[in-house]
Amino acid sequence: MSEYIEHNEDGVSVGLVEKKFFTFAEPPNEMLLENGDKLGPVTIAYETCGKLNADKSNVIFVLHALSGDSHVAGYYQGDDPKPGWWDIMVGPGKGIDTDKYFVICSNILGGCMGSTGPSSINPKTDKPYGLDFPFVTIGDMVQAQKKLIDHLGITKILSLIGGSIGGMQVLEWCAKYPEMALSAIPLATTARHSALAIAFNEVARQAIMADPHWIGGNYYAGEKPDLGLAVARMIGHITYLSDESMRLKFGRRLQEKKDFSFNFDADFQVESYLRYQGTKFVERFDANSFLYITKASDYFALDDQHGSGSLVEAFSKAGGKFLVVSFTSDWLYPTYQSKALVQAMKKNGLDVSFCEIEAEWGHDAFLLPNERLAAMVKGFLDRVYNETRY
Amino acid sequence: MRFDLQIIASWIEPGSKVLDLGCGQGVLLHFLKEKKQAVCAGIECVESKVGKSIERGLSVLQGDINEEILDYPDDTFDYVILSQTLQQVYEPAKLIQSLLRVGKKGIVSFPNFGHWRVRLQLLLTGHAPITKQLPYEWHDTPNIRVISIKDFRKFSRDVGFDILREEAINTINHEKRGNIIKFHPNLRSTYGIFLIGKEKT
Q: Rounded to whole angstroms, how far apart are CA atoms A228 and A278?
């Protein structure tokens, strides 16, 4: 996902929010990961907006994608230049109405925005983990989120919502802890990566690992593999857009010049855009986290991990209501992948709504202002809130 | 709500599980949910209508009714509704069979091509009939089939399903009001509405 964070035009916002931390799995009670490794202690950074009601029945859990973090909405300080990454959706009167719901968002395990990841200090060596960090899966991320939810004393989640890799976590929650998930909104996501998606991720990873500053992931004491990470981000951005959105946004227009420069500077606007996105990304993201998270998304296969190869079987324990949304121009997670989810849910007799939103902005459409998406999310949440009183 | 939908709604038992094929913006489903405490689902192919239905709190999915109906387990619904859509279906027999597989009962309605105005237009003008209920030219119509009430009764015998109840109606005043036609329905009614069930052997 990319950065489209904008201030709400009418200034509506949840206001100030605070990043909090929850630490668990202190040795010797480390967290057992899916690959058999142990990890501990584990810290999860999280933020909340809105008020938890008395019977704790208004919890919405937002799951972020590759480059997101716990800062879903609002501001840390009054003079922050930008609000949280989904401020257009989360706030008073918005699609996820913080006047009504209690919204939780946490940074994923393996991330670099406050939760334990490869850039965290390994207590055994007092140095950053680097590649000593164990391989975490989407299932491990969800297991860590479950610990946080337990810690907050919450037993039922009214709705889980997330796009892209966040959507994978939504699906994983429904398969792993079906009794807790009353409803779910997987957006622009898939039950498993296509070869195309894995291919793009692999090229991005190779860009990082080919950077001489990467040095086997052990770069924390010196210069960082910024060039590699920037190229990885550029590749990502291509997959988040679409042929149509690139034509509309850039075409073949030149960047602040009338003619070609006949050198390898950024002549085209699209080149300049990608370079800018790449440079901006390295200021806030850890290259090893990028490697670990993309690999976790490539390994994710809901059908294999929860249904012995059958997607229908994977949803056999789920009992909640679903709203599945895809976008017409998303070629990273095309609509057929969302329809496969819908089909498996229907075969289990589950209550599922599905809409393929007409949007020209590719995979990133789920992060952009979209009245249809906001209205559908609002209508769906109102319904499950009314129908699922417990 | 349209008069034909009022009739359909009146046939549905409170608390039923209902699937509406081609539910549009969910007017009927919304009514059934509110007034009959029905558990509702809908299928609609137009994105904006799907969006509106979900916004108003209905469980609706976007897709082609002929394909989407295939995924549901047997007898998932008490009623499956096909309202004014049969005349647009490419394989009507196949769809009706699917409908009676996933639903215990079906409700099917369609504009009656046996109406006297239709007959008279063809007879007197020699042109393909255009009516309020079927307002298209032959070349731009989504209605690829013409069905009369008599035809549907014959269709039930050919395909093998039971007609449990039928009502013929004549709509007036923007179709909000109407009359039930008992005398010569195939000649005098604008719409036929049928409650159908699996054939009793």
A: 9
For residue B69, give how far its alpha carbon lies from the nearest alpha carbon of chain A (Å).
Answer: 9
| Catalytic status, residue A164 | yes
Q: Is A186 left (phi over 0), alpha (psi -120 to 50) or beta?
A: beta
Taking the CA atoms of A187, A193, A196 and A198 in sequence, report the sign of the dihedral they define.
positive
Residue from A311, A339, A347, A354 to probe the interface with B (highest B Cβ count within 10 Å)? A354
CATH of A20-192+300-387, one of 3.50.50.60, 3.40.50.1820, 3.40.50.2300, 2.130.10.10: 3.40.50.1820
Domains and CATH numbers, chain B: 3-113+143-198 (3.40.50.150)
Contact (CB<8Å) B54/A343: no
Assembly ipTM = 0.92
Rounded distance between C-alpha atoms, residue B194 and residue B149, angstroms: 9
In chain B, whose CA is at the least distance from the CA of A327?
Answer: B47
Residue of chain A whose alpha carbon sits nearest to that of B60: A353
Rg, C-alpha atoms of chain A: 20
d(CA A241, CA B157): 54
pLDDT, one tens digit per residue, over B51-80 is: 999 999 999 999 999 999 999 999 999 999
User: What are A346-374's pLDDT values in tens digits?
Assistant: 999 999 999 999 998 899 888 988 999 99
Q: Structure tokens of B191? A: 């719409």
The model carries a pTM of 0.95
Which residue in the set A343, A351, A382 is minimally distant from B71, CB to CB? A343
